[in-house]
Fold:
Amino acid sequence: MFNPLITATAGWSEAVEERAKRFLAFPMGGEDGVPVTMATLLERAGQDPVNTARYLMIVPPLAAQRELIGMIGAFRIDGEPCPDPVAAAHAALSYAGRAVTMNEIHPERRWLAALLCALFGGRRQPH
Structure:
């Protein structure tokens, strides 16, 4: 389960820094021939890109995905909203090397996730 001490100290590891750099470089699209990256998205949202990227790399994975979905949903490139913020958030976090699905977080618990989905009628995300 979630351990706050491990999560808090994870923010200072080299792996988190590397993931944050990859996350900020994730291409979101382009405007007038200029690439728009995740760093651009965060700047336009009034966030500090580096600190926000580090934060998203140390919070629990599904919480990071939820927060990022909200930011991407409000973001516009050339006046157009992102067509699928959920897929974009998943792709950006995966590009950075961050696990965002139950199978990626706990591959050994795949059977438990399948059982819970079956019991509660949830849909599993594609792998």
